[in-house]
Amino acid sequence: MIKRILPVLCMVVLWTGCDSFLEPDPASFSTTANFYETPTQMEQAVNGVYARLRGFMGDEDYRYMTDLRGPTLTRHFDVNLPHTVAGIPQLDEFTMDVANGVVERNWQRMYQTIKEANVVIGRIDAVEFPDAAQKDRIIGEAKFIRALCYWNGVQFWGDIPLSLEEITSPSQAVPEGGRRPASEVYTQIVTDLQDAIAKLPVSYSGANVGRATQGAARFLLGKTYLLTGNFTGAATEFTALDAGPYSYSMMPTYLSVFDPANKNNAESIFELQFNPNIAGQPQIDALLVDILPYTAGGVFAIPTVVPLGRYMPTPDVINAYEPGDLRYADAIGWWEAAGNSAYPEIAFNDSIPYLNKFYWPAAINGQGQMNVNWISFRFADALLSAAEAYWRSSNDGQAMTYLNRVRDRAGLPPVNLGDFSGATTGSPMGDAILHERMIELLGEGHYWLDLMRFGSDVAERVMVAHGQAFRARDSKTLDVYNIRPDRFLYMVPPREILLGELTQNPGWN
């Protein structure tokens, strides 16, 4: 019974197009001088950067390095396999070695995207644009995407190489200076985003809907300020998104945010565009293959799809919902079948939860592909981020106001700080904000980064408790979840260390 309750020089074939602005199809780049000499060609070039970004942040590997790393999602384990098999389980269970392929692929995809953004930024001044606003917009888009890639990279790996120019020879493949201090990378992110804010439009219409906007750049700048301790600046950016000229608002219900009929909706600040119904276009794999229990193959009646169960809600998050939270039935579905109790790491007796918020059967085509976008940033996150910025600025009153706006849609009363001990973050308000982010943004690629931003001590407390709870539920996990804070930053892929003469992160030597 079912209850609906992207190495630096590597050039790969691009995923092409979407249902709107990525047409004509984006093209891969050439280092010859006669490419991208007209405004149309530069449009094609920046579309290619979007396609690269989709291959990075729109791929399941990205989510494995974000939410799967934390306590809210886990793999539906096969009792016939050891939990220490390479790849995805290692990320989940803190059993990784330096050769983990998921981490290497994300490093490569990130720098591939940066490389092509650099081509746009470096070549566009040589192109004559009759429309200056078009030129500004393309520069703003490329700088936003470059900043977004570096924003991810510095959180995944800490100090990273900083490349700001087009690569035209093998000798340029590794930027001078190797890994640059995280503070230097953040400075470049802020510079790119401030320029993007000045150049990008507030909104788009028609086929251009889905491109990066001024609001998306402002949101990312606020998130960067949270990471760098500029909490006043962060509050300014997030508060600005709550007023004109921006028109962001909460969707009427939680589930309607993710409904494919509502792509690029009023709550969406930036989302990756997908449409498998256009020839040659991709779907977003994790939003179908990975979210359904692997024991339910055939039951969900989806053609050609074999569920893999790689992205399943944990008992930790199921038990964290407050009574009366309307998001529970929207976010969580249940696969009920005899024998599911054999998977105690995720099951409640014979019921296994899955991410109902991402399961849209009516949007699945005859090839078993689901026509949905991936929302990277949305207004509810901006409200919660504003709450965090005000709390960190010692303004609990304003923090409470923004926090409760998110709770209101969930049908919950204003937060009672007496319900939070402060044992996780050192502050009841901090605990309340972190809790709300866990529930509201479940499965959206944020919570592990949230824990890291709140501090390695916070991440350690949460993950140690998560490991203890998992081991208590499932005897097969007795040798995993040995939490090491010196491995919270990911390893630099060995290939990059060899080719680029880079240093390794502590704990991975």
What does this structure look like?
By secondary structure, the chain is mainly alpha-helical. It has 16 helices and nine strands. The chain has a three-stranded antiparallel sheet with strand order 1-7-8. The protein has a two-stranded antiparallel sheet with strand order 2-6. A two-stranded antiparallel sheet has the order 3-4. Helix 11 (379-392) runs antiparallel to helix 13. The radius of gyration is 22 Å and the shape is globular. The N and C termini lie far apart (49 Å). Mean pLDDT is 89; it is low at 4-18.
List keywords for this structure.
mainly alpha; globular; 509 residues; 16 helices; three-stranded antiparallel beta sheet; two-stranded antiparallel sheet; 9 strands
